[in-house]
Amino acid sequence: MKKFLALIVTVLVCLSLLVGCSVGGPDKSYDYDYSHTPTGIPENDKGDNYQFAEIKENDFTDVSKTADSYFSLNRNTSGYSLMRRQINEGAKIHPSSVRIEDYVNYFNYNYARPTGDDSLALGGSLFDCPWNAAHKLLRIGVAAEELNFDDTANNVVFLIDVSGSMYGEDRLPLVQQAFTMLLPMLDVADTVSVVTYASGTKVLCEGLTCTDSNKTKIANIIQDIQAGGSTYGEGGINLAYACAEKYMHRGGNNRVILATDGDFNVGASSDGELEKLISDKASKGIDLTVLGFGMGNTRDHTMETLAKNGNGTAAYIDTINEARKVLVEEFGGTMRTVAYDAKAKVVFNAESVDKYRLIGYENSMLTSDQYNNSKTQAGEIGSGHTVTAVYEVALKKGVADGASVAELEVAYKKAPLTDNENVENPEYKVNASITLDGSYVQTDDDKFVACVVEYGLLLRESKYKSDATFADVIARLAALNDYIATDGFKAEFAEVVGKAATLYGAKN
Fold first, then answer.
1. Which residue in 3, 60, 83, 306 has the fewest CB atoms around it within 10 Å?
2. Element (H, E) at 405
3. Which DSSP letter does residue 183 get?
4. pLDDT tens digit sequence for 359-413
């Protein structure tokens, strides 16, 4: 019923926006077409003005020396959608921008949901590696519970970067579409505040309950925003969190949704300063979602850093369809975190496994001490989301069917850490075992995940790609046609791979 009502309100809001609302940039204003999806890279965006964290691929680890592997679980997807836009625009991908975990986790999979009091369910599979016949792939699948949102109050602050770098149809106008699209998903129990920042900061509205009339008011406020000035990100973040604290819903969802190109050039701009600022606010129970927009000025690493320290996730919005996916179709996962400080431990059996390497998650690796410390800040998983990790594994020769390969464990909390040092939030754990099963039949999820990983290795120009080719990925995706045909985003991935193959030519 809520989704039906949301659809009705969406139509009403869109109709209201057609009557006299306009947006613009410096010294400009124009009628806005809600259905428009920006295309093309502006001429001033075609340089190399991107900032990515340097990625050093995980190497193979000798199990006889180190059998345990630890990493933080998260579901950021910004790396995938940024890649998709670049490929669609005919641009090759910077290897340091390829976070394979973002690619894999962009999609949802048919994993079993948790039962009982668990917020997460854990499973896995072991199957042949397509690009290295001598190896296996160990797929770890985590599925989050799906919450009932009818009984959940949302306190949401839209924090919008309106600096000059946000001028352009793929930036502020797309932000306006995205937030307008989110409004119908909220109801009268929810509150919305709108904060903007450029050279200065401004509260455009605060604590408005989401009645139909207020939704129209908020939508009109958002549509009237214009871009111009420098980027006082620190001030905007502080003001947004102040609004969130003022209208705090105890036991509800309190969240700042930041829309930016990630360019912070005034105020606290170093990673360390931003990490502390956001982490301090997250400890008070206010989560952060980071939505990236635009190209050429993108600070991908900054957005990832903010999301990681804000008990939240990062997504890159390149089209209106992506906005719909993140803010409507995955509303629950975007808006409500069900597992905080989620982290994984994999213990390989030295009698069965020769070596292993975790593919992706390079920026999320943990030590054993960090894993075993309940206060370690790890990843967050939203309602209904799935999270996937893949290891490439070399088994010992002669390993018998049924042999133990690895023991899996995921630890998480149901509530964020508080700023009260005397309060210890309990950790919950789920476990699973992986054995060598010669009769195992790969699922379609297994096959698709392998395609995504192989594609990422090719774009990264990985030294571990072995026999990987675009042609092989394309052929295996074609064999999965019935599977991907039911999911528009998976079908779109097949198209992206085809375009990338043409773009990279005979190189791979």
1. 3
2. strand 404-413
3. G
4. 999 999 999 999 999 989 899 999 999 999 999 999 999 999 999 999 999 999 9
